[in-house]
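Tip: read the tokens left to right.
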């Protein structure tokens, strides 16, 4: 599994990924997307919202279940991926690319893992 994870990203134990460039981009991992199955709905915080690392910031609904989305960072939401909201299947087909979820002007991060550490938790 670890070989398939982009090593330029950081991860959370709750299956979110973080690209720490500015602004910080957040998405869910392929592990999460595969476990959820076909994603049919994505609810994200509004642009301008203040979010806290570790807090629930939205939901991802699939044909199997509904999962909460936890923020890996604290800061202000500066962009929401409207393409993923309009076509949630992008999160399944390209979770590390076109399926990103939001961009944040981050002021702090929560507990983040390297690709190797995340891969070890999700063999």
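Filled-in amino acids:
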């Amino acid at each position: 599994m670890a070989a398939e994870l982009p090593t330029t990203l950081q991860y959370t134990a709750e299956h979110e990924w973080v690209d720490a460039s500015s602004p910080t981009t957040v998405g869910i991992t392929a592990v999460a997307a595969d476990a959820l199955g076909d994603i049919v709905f994505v609810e994200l915080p509004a642009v301008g919202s203040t979010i806290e690392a570790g807090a629930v910031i939205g939901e991802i609904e699939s044909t199997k279940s509904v999962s909460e989305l936890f923020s890996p960072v604290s800061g202000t939401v500066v962009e929401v991926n409207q393409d993923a909201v309009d076509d949630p299947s992008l999160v399944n087909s390209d979770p590390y690319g076109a399926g990103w979820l939001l961009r944040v002007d981050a002021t702090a991060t929560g507990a983040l893992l390297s690709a190797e550490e995340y891969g070890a938790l999700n063999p």
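The longest strand covers residues 73-80. The beta strands are 10-11, 16-19, 24-28, 39-43, 50-51, 56-62, 66-70, 73-80, 102-109.
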